[in-house]
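Design job #97: recover the sequence.
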């Protein structure tokens, strides 16, 4: 038997030292699919598509930078050629080193796959975007030798894909060497005249995205320190730890270790180099999605310091928390948070007979002490309460916040009330809560006792499915209202949703009849499809579906309360169906109902889902229309713009608003009835306008949506062989959409969308038959086909009681 720690068979000291130096000693297990890789993939593909849209015509900046490199002294040509060849050797060498020296067959497989996919996609995308051939003819470039277009630079694409794929596995010197070589290969391409800056950027983005896709498909290592390394680090901090082990469960943005010390067991949270991105992604997304979330920490050191600070502030307020032994940066760039490990079962693991009323009161007293210090925990469920021998302890302050205490306190109460009700029943849970907290604090949490407003951990504790969870929370709300002697805060039920099956059936017929009436008959549809490039139409449909993400971000920014990201995105998908079945009204009603289900009162929901969404979209469209006109290479003539119609429509709207306000505030009974709802709506609107974060989400979400719709139209135009500048199409789409909402044209948005788009493209030189086909195809992929997944999304949200 080989002694422990000996090198593998056939690997000598020299090879072993090379393996350690190149690939390090950090543990590769377990492998994770990280959210940061998903962001890289989406960002890389999106930026690549933007660059690819103008790859056939280099800009003045591209030519200027290209000429600057070409004008350098000619004596640099030999080393530049060597540098270009070294890039290929480095990519091949990484694969060979991983397989032969490092004995990492998994890594060798990933590197080979990344390099092969990068080579194939780079050559294929070049002929698609530069030579403008179809997908079938483009695939021939993969099986036939010969030159391919310079965009994207194939050699650089392969190098970036291999280096980025190997990055989580290799040590810092190897990563830095690969990154420097990438820059050198890009510079040599311009010096030797083989690529413009746009070709280099396209290759780098495509390779970066391919590496992210490989990591998502197969996972990548955590890069965490080993138990031996962490033991040595703790000893340098004066903590004599033994039996250091990786925890059985891990957090997505940190590594958890457990060990023994002279003072008892300890818990060590480690945030290393490979977990920084996951940490920043989690905090940034939560900050963007939730108004009451803590601000993201760009530094991992700030993150652990914040967690320790919240725990220490809670301790000073009389809350039982784990003792903090160390927080700070250590060697290898990692940061540590070392805490005393609280021994005892978690509240979620206890049975009903093990939780008496005295324990429940102690838990609620801990919460009262926490809130008296104006600190909200943010995740106060059964997994974060440990029941010790003498008292319960609140653990894990990673989501705690003092800045958003007022908005997040009801969420803490609702979360813990539902958690305790799942263990001991509604009556005992409410009685224990009422014995400690003020009635006003309990009543404020009742609106959040809904499946969408509590954590998944609590929902799983309540019931096995969402429908049963909804019923359990409704019973808990009723019991709490009974104890408080208050009315249960009901959300208004829309009758349209109550008869959902009938309406969805009728809407399905409308969704089929409308596009058929626009196209004409089946023969016309077949003719249209037969002459279109399926690849471009498919890309347009994908982009159209992805627009639901920025739409969701805009809605998230319009409300002061936290909204879950994916259910909000699913709502936008569902609105594709409701807007087609019941134009305008259907989507608005669905949005308002969803906001009510999230605990938002009706007036605020109407203000956020109706007023803010409409004005935010219109203002963004007008601003982007003017910006697109300025940036577009084509000349725009606005002499025929119906300014008088626009002014008349705006004037009528303002007069109508003034009349409604006069009735609301001029008639006593009406004023008393609408005063509170109008005040709530005004506060919601003012909170969004005065908050830089909310305003950025509203404007940014609508801006990204407009750009993506312009790219949809570009893809539809390319599907029939036409071409226009992306900025020109952005001006066309935003202008037509804005006019359709302001100018009363018979036929509504469908007529304006089809006729306006085709007429505008024809005015810029697109042949009439191509313009009409592209406009009609754009109408199908933007309005009609998304209604199919919208139907399923509506059914799913109804089933989950999100509507």
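Job complete. Output follows.
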């Amino acid at each position: 038997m080989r002694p422990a720690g000996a090198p593998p068979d056939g690997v000598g000291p020299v090879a072993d030292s090379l393996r350690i130096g190149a690939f390090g000693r950090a543990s590769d297990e377990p492998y994770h699919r990280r959210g940061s890789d998903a962001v890289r993939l989406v960002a890389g593909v999106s930026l690549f598509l933007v660059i690819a849209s103008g790859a056939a015509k280099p800009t003045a900046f591209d030519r200027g930078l290209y000429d600057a490199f070409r004008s350098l002294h000619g004596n640099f040509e030999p080393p530049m050629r060597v540098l270009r060849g070294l890039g290929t050797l480095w990519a091949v060498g990484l694969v060979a080193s991983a397989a032969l020296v490092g004995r990492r067959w998994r890594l060798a497989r990933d590197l080979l796959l990344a390099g092969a996919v990068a080579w194939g996609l780079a050559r294929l995308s070049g002929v698609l975007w530069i030579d403008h051939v179809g997908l079938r003819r483009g695939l021939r470039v993969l099986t036939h030798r010969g030159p391919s277009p310079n965009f994207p630079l194939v050699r650089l694409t392969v190098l970036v894909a291999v280096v980025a794929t190997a990055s989580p596995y290799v040590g810092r010197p190897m990563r830095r060497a690969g990154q420097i070589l990438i820059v050198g290969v890009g510079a040599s391409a311009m010096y030797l005249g083989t690529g413009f800056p746009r070709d280099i950027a396209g290759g780098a983005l495509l390779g970066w995205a391919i590496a992210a896709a490989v990591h998502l498909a197969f996972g990548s290592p955590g890069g965490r320190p080993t138990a031996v390394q962490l033991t040595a680090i703790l000893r340098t901090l004066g903590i004599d730890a033994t039996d250091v082990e990786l925890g059985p469960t891990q957090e997505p943005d940190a590594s958890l270790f457990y060990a023994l010390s002279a003072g008892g067991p300890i818990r060590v949270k480690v945030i290393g180099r490979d977990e920084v991105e996951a940490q920043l992604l989690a905090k940034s997304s939560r900050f963007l999605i939730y108004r009451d979330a803590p601000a993201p920490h760009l530094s991992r050191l700030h993150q652990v310091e914040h967690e320790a600070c919240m725990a220490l502030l809670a301790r000073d307020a009389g809350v039982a928390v784990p003792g903090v032994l160390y927080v700070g940066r250590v060697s290898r760039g990692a940061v540590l948070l070392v805490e005393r490990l609280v021994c005892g079962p978690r509240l979620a693991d206890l049975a009903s007979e093990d939780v008496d009323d005295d324990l429940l009161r102690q838990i609620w007293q801990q919460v009262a002490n926490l809130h008296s210090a104006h600190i909200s925990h943010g995740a106060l469920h059964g997994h974060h309460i440990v029941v010790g021998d003498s008292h319960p302890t609140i653990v894990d302050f990673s989501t705690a916040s003092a800045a958003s205490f007022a908005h997040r306190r009801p969420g803490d109460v609702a979360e813990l009330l539902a958690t305790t009700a799942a263990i001991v029943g509604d009556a005992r849970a409410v009685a224990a809560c009422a014995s400690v907290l003020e009635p006003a604090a309990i009543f404020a949490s009742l609106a959040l006792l809904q499946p969408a407003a509590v954590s998944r951990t609590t929902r799983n504790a309540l019931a096995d499915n969402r429908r049963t969870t909804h019923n359990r929370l409704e019973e808990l709300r009723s019991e709490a209202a009974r104890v408080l002697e208050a009315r249960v805060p009901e959300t208004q039920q829309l009758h349209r949703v109550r008869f959902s099956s009938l309406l969805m059936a009728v809407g399905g017929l409308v969704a089929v009849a409308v596009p058929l009436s626009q196209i004409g008959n089946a023969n016309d549809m077949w003719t249209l499809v037969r002459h279109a490039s399926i690849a471009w139409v498919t890309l347009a449909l994908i982009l159209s579906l992805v627009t639901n993400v920025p739409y969701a971000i805009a809605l998230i920014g319009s409300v002061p309360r936290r909204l879950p990201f994916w259910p909000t995105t699913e709502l936008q998908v569902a609105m594709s169906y409701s807007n087609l079945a019941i134009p305008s009204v259907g989507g608005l009603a669905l949005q308002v109902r969803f906001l009510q289900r999230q605990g938002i009162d009706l007036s605020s929901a109407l203000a956020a889902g109706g007023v803010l969404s409409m004005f935010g979209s219109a203002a963004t469209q007008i601003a982007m229309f003017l910006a697109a006109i300025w940036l577009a290479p084509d000349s725009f003539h606005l002499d025929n713009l119906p300014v008088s119609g626009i002014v008349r429509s705006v004037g009528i709207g303002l007069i109508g608003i003034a009349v409604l306000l006069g009735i609301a505030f001029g008639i006593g009974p009406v004023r008393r009835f609408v005063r509170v709802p109008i005040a709530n709506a005004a506060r919601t609107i003012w909170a969004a306008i005065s908050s830089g974060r909310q305003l950025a989400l509203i404007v940014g979400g609508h801006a990204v949506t407009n750009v993506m719709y312009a790219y949809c139209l570009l893809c539809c135009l390319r599907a029939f062989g036409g071409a226009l500048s992306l900025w020109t199409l952005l001006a066309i789409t935003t202008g037509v959409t804005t006019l359709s909402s302001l100018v009363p044209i018979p036929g509504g948005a469908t007529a304006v969308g089809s006729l306006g788009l085709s007429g505008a493209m024809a005015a810029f030189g697109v042949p009439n038959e191509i313009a009409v086909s592209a406009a009609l195809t754009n109408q199908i992929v933007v309005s009609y086909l998304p209604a199919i997944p919208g139907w399923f999304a509506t059914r799913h949200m109804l089933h989950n009681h999100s509507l």
